[in-house]
Amino acid sequence: MLMVATGNRAVAEAVREAKPVVIAAYPITPQTGIVEQIAEYVSHGVLLSRYIPVESEHSAMAACIGASATGARTFTATSSQGLLYMHEMTNWAAGARLPVVMANVNRALGPGWNIWAEHTDAIQERDTGWLQVYTGTVQEAYDTTLMAFCIAEHNDVLLPVMVNLDGFLLSHDMQPLETVDCGDFIPPLHLPHAIDPQNPIAYGPLTGPDQYYKFRWDIERSMRDSVNVIGQTQAEFARRFGRKYGFTDDYRCDDADAVVVSLGTLGKEAEVAIDALRSEGIKAGSMRVRWLRPFPKLDLAGREVVVIDRDYSFGFGGVLAHEIKAKNHIDVCSVIAGLGGQEVTYDDIAGFIKNRRIGEESWFGVTPGV
Amino acid sequence: MFEVRIHSRGGEGGVTAARLLAIAAIRDGKYASACPFYGAERRGAPVVSFVRIDDRPVRVYSQIRTPDLVVVLDASLVGVVDVLSGLKAGGTILINSAHTREFAGYRTCSVDLTGIALRENLIMAGSPILDTSVLGALARIGIISQNSAKKAITEVFTDERNVRAADAAYREVVI
User: Fold this and answer.
1) A174: chain B residues, CB-CB within 8 Å
2) CA of B38: which chain A residue's CA is closest?
């Protein structure tokens, strides 16, 4: 059915279709629309999940962990400070190999108090063992949330998945949304290590130096295996529903001399910049990274690369820029733009590409020394 | 791409008007996106919402700077905020006003949405509802079809008075 929906509504619609057994959540701007809508589905009996309105995000993730350990499909959503408050538990969910699915509506961290888009919240969760995917349209947020359940719960993965949406830009933007009847696209969850009262086992016991690293390696092994599972799931989604997704969303990259790489809505805005540059005879392309974990090797050989980071690692640099440099053994032009919802237009992005200086970092709107 | 900026005060329905306009455009078979600019809103404070209508999917998320059409749901905003800011030369301004207005250099359309709401008793929490009737005026100006305007309103609201008010705005807008 073709409806007009916000990114938040799209995620809620996908969750309704995925039918988690347990949803535990705490509201936070700009994510609140997701859990409000889900709470309405549950209260109207449209969704037969157990909805646990917890008192904090730490508890939201703890409740998801407890429910997931019984083999129940679980979902939660958060943003910014809420995600940080979960941090101890997000590590636990991944370490315990629990396929929790979470939507994170990317928002800057305080202070100064700011409710607008930035990726630093999710980036700070990069090393927890969660898979991370970033979306650029309402339709993509819906489709990716459906796929997230398949990927997280796949026996070769069994790791939690975080679906990211830019705060307000995507969470509150209203766009056409084609919903699907997902049928058996998401298979039932069979958690091999689910709690069984008939067969008691201990969870999270002391794990000594002779064992611990093996569990860590097992997370990494599954993270590597998840590459295939993501590929298969995206292919199956395209086969059933006709919409194709990759590890990246490439736009006019084939013959491009310069490629701009970004996450989230910046990557859609960049496409408009690319069209403008192409009409001036400048061969540019846009590569929007969808999956940050597992991080794909990008096809950037022979191009000049401009990376826009809506995040920052203080004392180091833009995280996406440095990950691309490390993974691809190339140098890039790094632009820090869009922090805390800073307005970045397609004209600005065209300027980043035109004025690129490989090997340098610049902050949009900042003149060094001033 | 056709770009619309809607000026209103917090609580007057600018966001809903943007949403309804996007729905109507999509029901016309076009692509559209609607986004409010979220700031520190308070009831009564000036707010803006944006709508983009195109023949292909909308990929722009930044704010509209050079609209083709400006809608002013609250005439008291004129002079308080620069409602004409960036409006393309020869662009259209639709204003909710009991009397006909003129903005030199622009196609000005006036309609008494407040009067229509009071006549239809379309009042919520003490305020006249403007966000549904404005669709009728937008249909008359030719932004959307009248049929899709009605569809959009009935998809979101069940009260028939909304459609009647939109019909009235369609008839009464002075172009």
Assistant:
1) 18-19, 22, 33-35
2) A168
* Distance between start and end Cα atoms, chain B: 23
A170, A172, A176 member nearest B36 (Cβ): A172
Question: pLDDT (tens digit, 0 to 9) for every residue of chain B, 175 residues total?
Answer: 999 999 999 888 899 999 999 999 999 999 999 998 877 667 788 899 999 999 999 999 999 999 999 999 999 999 999 999 999 999 999 999 999 888 989 999 999 999 999 999 888 888 888 999 999 999 999 999 999 999 999 999 999 999 999 999 999 999 9
Closest residue on chain B to A269 (Cα): B60
Q: Domain-by-domain residue ranges, chain A?
A: 2-186+205-241, 249-363
Please state the domain count of chain B: 1
Nearest Cα neighbor of A148 from A165, A168, A169 is: A165
Sheet strand arrangement including A333-336: A248-251, A284-289, A258-263, A304-309, A333-336, A361-363
Tell me if chain A has a CB within 8 Å of the CB of B60: yes
Are the folds of A2-186+205-241 and A249-363 the same? yes
Q: Which chain A residues have a beta carbon less than 8 Å from that of B28?
A: none
CATH code (residue B28): 3.40.920.10
| DSSP symbol at B87 | P
Return the CATH superfamily for domain A2-186+205-241: Thiamin diphosphate (ThDP)-binding fold, Pyr/PP domains (3.40.50.970)
Interface probe, candidates A175, A249, A286, chain B, greatest B C-beta count within 10 A = A175
Query: Smallest Cβ distance to A174: which of B22, B59, B63?
Result: B22
Going by C-beta distance under 8 Å and a sequence separation of 6 or more, which residues neighbour residue B169?
Answer: B111, B113, B116, B133, B134, B135, B136, B137, B140
The fold of the A249-363 domain, in CATH, is: Rossmann fold (3.40.50)
Nearest Cβ partner for A271 among B33, B59, B63: B59
